């Protein structure tokens, strides 16, 4: 079954990266707020978020051969955005360990890369039919809403990490909960790419083949 293992891997990376970033961010928040006075929380938070960075880069790498036949440039762009997101997360973690100082709103930069990458991914999924159409549309809406939230937070209009501002996370969070489960249990719907989308020497997959 083409790309079946890739689908499972990507699903697990999505789920684990979401969990580790959530827990890691909480540990870092506790450390910098003074709730946790020990450096163990700082190190654990940085370690968990570093895993998140490696996981999102892994998602980009794993999905590249799956997405490439349906848009070479967009697939490369998605990979680049995920790797950039990884680099930002690890760089910020190193800053935390060395300086022991908080970096205000660093998560907004992470979400900006995540939202941009998510839009590209959702568009490619919609264009290719690799997953159900409604799920691709949910991704497009979810990441667009997330980017709108990031922009609103930067402009001082809302705090997306508290109160009503957390609503900006809901549609994208739902997508990132459903997509990995669909990939783990059902895999991709591999559709033959349209002529000229990918590499010229790329052989299209049999139409309707299941992953």
Describe the structure.
The chain is mainly α and 211 residues long. The protein has one domain (4-188). It contains 6 helices and 2 strands. Helix 3 runs antiparallel to helix 4 (106-128). The protein is globular and about 55 Å long. Residues 199-211 have low confidence and may be disordered.
Brief overview:
This protein is mainly α and 211 residues long.
The overall number of domains is 1
- Provide mean pLDDT, rounded: 89
Query: Shape, please?
Result: globular
- Helical residues, percent: over 70%
Strand order of the largest sheet: 1-2
Secondary-structure-derived class:
mainly alpha
The CA-CA distance between the termini, in Å, is 5 Å
Task: Output the radius of gyration.
Answer: 18 Å
Strand content: under 5%
Count of helical regions: 6
Number of strands: 2
Largest sheet: 2 strands, antiparallel
* Poorly predicted parts: 199-211
SSE run: HHHHHHEE
Task: Give me some keywords for this one.
211 residues, 6 helices, 70% helix, disordered C terminus, two-stranded antiparallel ribbon, mainly alpha
What are the SSEs and their pairings?
Layout: H1 4-33, H2 39-67, H3 72-99, H4 106-128, H5 133-154, H6 170-185, E1 189-190, E2 209-210
Antiparallel strand pairs: 1-2
Helix pairs in contact: 1-2, 1-6, 2-3, 3-4, 4-5, 5-6
